Amino acid sequence: MFDIKGKVAVVVGASSGLGADAARAYGKNGAKVALLARREEKLADVARKLQEAGVDTFIHKCDVTDETSVKTAITAVHDHFGRIDILLNNAGVAVRGGVHQLSEADWDKSMDTNVKGIFLASKYAVPYMMAQNYGKIINIASINAVIADKQDVFIRHSYNASKAAVLGLTKGMAASYGRYNITVNAIGPGLFESEMTENTLFKSEDFLNSYNYQNPLGRPGKRGELNGTILYFSSDMSSYVSGQFIVVDGGMSIV
């Protein structure tokens, strides 16, 4: 039931980090993979490695904050593969600062990428899923959708707000599209090393020591440790699971 062989998986935000890891996991498990992101050179690098491993791969430039760009990319994927079975909405940004520090542009950047991006990708993928009466949508939220942090290095109020909005959108979509055999779920990663965190949080020894002390597993997440949950939500093993939020954080959100 974990089998996704032959399915078409679209990874939005696939050029690096957790998105690239997920694309490799999809390919390793037999899916055809479409990679979408703004940075074409990085997409090409990810695609080349997938193709060398024998994965049927398609890439298209996509700016998730621009509706025309998203519509063009999703349409191109469907034209290429003939269907879209899985949509992983992974594109995201984390803008640091409290509300007294954030500019309006900072706020809009968080909302446009983290929330509007999911809305737009889903807007154009969902009709294809409805027509085929099948679809799996996985939205990458964050544990910061449900918890916050008072340490200066981790204060990101626009990130908290945008990721909480992802949960509301996930529930609304799940309730509406279940009749079309489309499940919609969200994942909340804890701290993973990625392009978003490696030059900020992972460079603060004090923060890492504090995080590791508080985390029940005593460490951040490792590369690939999000993939099991992604594959679960992407496969028919989760056929009766929709509108749910699973945190993958080593237990950080329970302490």
From TrEMBL:
It comes from the Bacteria. SUPFAM superfamilies: NAD(P)-binding Rossmann-fold domains. InterPro entries: NAD(P)-bd_dom_sf, Sc_DH/Rdtase_CS, SDR_fam. It holds the Pfam family adh_short_C2. PANTHER family: SHORT-CHAIN DEHYDROGENASES/REDUCTASES FAMILY MEMBER (PTHR42760). Belongs to the short-chain dehydrogenases/reductases (SDR) family. This is Gluconate 5-dehydrogenase.
